[in-house]
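F.,

This is the one I mentioned.
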């Protein structure tokens, strides 16, 4: 639509300019014709002034009219009778008087050879408001007008011409050619813009693919760091405790500590093989999961942190709970990261707690984790699942992003909210597979 209007405007403007230019050419041509007419008439009229003193009474009329055919008659008057220098006689004739001689001049004959006068719609010769000669209709108005007075002592006639453009001789092909030109120019411009847009989109896609690749690598590396950090810290503290006990010769508690360290080492092993698997393929082995047992394992893994934060743990599992079929390590990671955040959010809280609730809903299983912390800030509510969003000084902001990725891979959903008077609440839903139960 916009292109159509642009084309129309440009075409109209260009065609109007071209027409104006061609009309100007016509005007210049007619002006030149008028100048020629003026020059010829001036020359012929000056001949009358020149010849008058030379004409004698005995002059042969035939000779004179042969030389100047416009002089159709002459007569000698009494010099005593005062006469006007020019007396219109009608039908293109006038008397020109000087001294005792009067010449009857026929302007039609005088102008007979002047082809230029035909180019004008109207042409007239006047003397003091009286029309001596007229060609065409002087009452109809014309586009252009030319007026000039002949420089002559006895015949200061006013030459007037009026003309119209000759539309039929305008080069219409040229006047209409901008339509074609602008259509072609706009078509080429549109093609150029379309190609450029395509190129830009292709560049953008390539750039985006590169970014995604870098992001995936970054996310993977960040994810590994995030997941390995907690078990490594736990192993270190178990080993430090074991060394202290050996120094104090309290050997009885050492197997328990070392066993706890072994559990963490096994988790590291499992995490590493999961990352390996993720690099090789996206599939992880699905297994029926006994949720109470899995939760117990998460609590064991975070045992140190729960103790240090004095977090009170509670859970509720619905009776006849169906088995969730999924890679157990994924579900473990999800719960581990949410629980870990709950512990970190309640550091310094007098009565820290975490409640885990599992029940059926909409052909799936709903897991709700609620804590007694300050809850999620308004910004966190919006951005908690975005990679690298963190409010913790030592945080990376990848825990919940990983949770979100894993939940979606399991075709589940996750919502974050706050519970009035309590803390944050994460509600997860996973679909159940019919054949598993
Ligand atoms: N239970 C919670 N209570 C209050 N705020 C929370 C809770 N869980 C998450 N958040 C907010 O969401 C942010 C993002 O959590 P996320 O686990 O993604 O990153 P992080 O814990 O800050 O760092 P890390 O990558 O080490 O886990 C946290 O920094 C915190 O502000
Ligand atoms: Mg976290």
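My design for it:
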């Amino acid at each position: 639509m916009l292109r159509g209007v642009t084309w129309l405007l440009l075409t109209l403007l260009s065609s109007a300019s071209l027409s104006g230019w061609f009309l100007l050419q016509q005007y210049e041509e007619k002006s030149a014709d008028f100048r020629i007419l003026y020059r010829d008439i001036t020359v012929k009229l000056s001949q009358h002034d020149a010849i008058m003193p030379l004409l004698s009474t005995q002059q042969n009329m035939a000779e004179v009219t042969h030389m100047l055919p416009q002089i159709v008659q002459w007569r000698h008057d009494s010099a005593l009778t005062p006469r006007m220098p020019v007396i219109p006689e009608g039908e293109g004739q006038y008397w020109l008087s000087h001294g005792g001689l009067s010449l009857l001049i026929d302007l039609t004959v005088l102008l007979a050879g002047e082809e230029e006068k035909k180019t004008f719609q109207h042409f007239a010769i006047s003397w003091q408001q009286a029309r001596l000669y007229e060609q065409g209709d002087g009452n109809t108005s014309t586009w252009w007008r030319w007026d000039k007075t002949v420089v002559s002592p006895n015949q200061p006639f006013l030459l007037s011409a009026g003309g119209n453009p000759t539309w039929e001789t305008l080069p219409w092909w040229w006047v209409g050619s901008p339509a074609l030109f602008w259509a072609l120019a706009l078509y080429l411009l549109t093609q150029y813009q379309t190609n450029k847009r395509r190129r830009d989109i292709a560049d953008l896609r390539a750039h985006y693919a590169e970014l995604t690749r870098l992001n995936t690598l970054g996310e993977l590396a960040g994810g590994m760091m995030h997941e390995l950090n907690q078990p490594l810290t736990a192993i270190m503290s178990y080993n430090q405790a074991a060394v202290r006990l050996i120094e104090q010769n309290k050997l009885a508690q050492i197997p328990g500590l070392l066993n706890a360290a072994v559990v963490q080492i096994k988790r590291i092993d499992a995490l590493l093989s999961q990352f390996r698997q993720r690099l090789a393929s996206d599939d992880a082995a699905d297994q029926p999961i006994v949720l109470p047992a899995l939760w117990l394992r998460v609590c064991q893994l975070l045992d140190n942190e729960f103790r240090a934060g004095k977090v009170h743990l509670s859970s509720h599992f619905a009776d006849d709970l169906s088995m969730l079929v999924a890679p157990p390590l994924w579900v473990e990671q999800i719960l581990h990261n949410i629980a870990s955040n709950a512990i970190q959010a309640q550091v310094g809280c007098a009565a820290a707690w975490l409640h885990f609730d599992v029940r059926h809903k909409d052909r799936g299983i709903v897991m709700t984790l609620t804590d007694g912390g300050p809850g999620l800030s308004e910004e966190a509510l919006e951005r908690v699942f975005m990679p690298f969003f963190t409010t913790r000084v030592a945080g990376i902001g990848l825990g919940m992003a990983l949770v979100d990725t894993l939940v979606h891979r399991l075709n589940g959903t996750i919502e974050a909210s706050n519970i009035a008077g309590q803390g944050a609440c994460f509600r997860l839903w996973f679909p159940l597979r019919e054949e598993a139960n």
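The first strand starts at residue 71 and ends at 76.

Talk soon.
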